[in-house]
Amino acid sequence: MKDEVAVQQVRYEGIVKAMEEMSPQREIWYGEFLQRIQERGYNTDGDQRMPIKLADIPLRPDRPHKRKERNNGYRQAAR
After folding, report:
1. Are 41 and 49 in contact (CB under 8 A)?
2. What are the φ and ψ backbone dihedral angles of 40, each rounded to 5 degrees?
3. Which terminus, N or C, of the chain has the lesser number of Cβ atoms within 10 Å?
């Protein structure tokens, strides 16, 4: 069991390293996405699109990109 955990930890660290290396590309993707939803909008019904105003787009947080915990992206309920 310890060997399997060690192998999984090495694999996980490799994935984290790869994700951190692609941070500059991720910033480009974010910018392209925000530009696209302002110009083209998003589908509301069939082929109808609704652009999003610049005022409705949240400001970028002043922190590095945060990885999601292993909870499928949902917040944990308070206990």
Report:
1. yes
2. -95, -30
3. C
